[in-house]
Amino acid sequence: QVQLVESGGGLVQPGGSLRLSCAASGRLFSIYVMGWYRQAPGKERELVALITRDDRITIVDSVKGRFTISKNNPWNTVYLQMDSLRPEDTAIYYCYSDSPPLGTTISWGRGTQVTVSS
């Protein structure tokens, strides 16, 4: 079992920045990939960014160039640096982890609200 706790959300003006953190506990050695999804009101949850144990990164086009995902070593925390925020980035951001066999041992955090508004 892996437990995930997010922090760092809040209210920010358009063009501003926020840094989200996700701290993992439990079977840390089993984690292969961690990352972030988000869900805006009335929309489905969507992928934002992923990072693997061997530092392979996936970032969706809608945030590429504005968001950066990173992790610490030894690995127990993943970060999402969000710059040049837009109102359409407003959503609940959920931390995610998966362990082999992939797709069968997914963990989710409870989410942190990010609101971009003037």
Describe the fold and architecture.
There is one protein chain. The chain has 118 residues and is mostly beta strands. 0% of the residues lie in helices and 52% in strands. The chain contains no helices and 11 strands. The strands form 2 sheets. Strands 2, 4, 5, 6, 9, 10 and 11 form a 7-stranded mixed sheet that branches. It has a 4-stranded antiparallel sheet with strand order 1-3-8-7, with no helix packed on it. Strand 4 and strand 5 form a beta hairpin. The chain is globular. The N and C termini lie far apart (40 Å). The model has no long low-confidence stretch (mean pLDDT 96).
Mean pLDDT: 96
Largest sheet: number of strands, sense, barrel closure: 7 strands, mixed
Radius of gyration: 14 Å
In helices, the fraction of residues equals under 10%
Q: What does the overall shape look like?
A: globular
| Secondary structure tally, helices | 0
First-residue to last-residue Cα separation: 40 Å
Low-confidence stretches: none
| Secondary structure tally: strands | 11
Counting helices, strands and paired strands, the structural category is mainly beta
Give a brief rundown of this model.
It is built from no helices and eleven strands. It is mainly β and 118 residues long. Strands 2, 4, 5, 6, 9, 10 and 11 form a seven-stranded mixed β-sheet that branches. It has a four-stranded antiparallel β-sheet with strand order 1-3-8-7, with no helix packed on it.
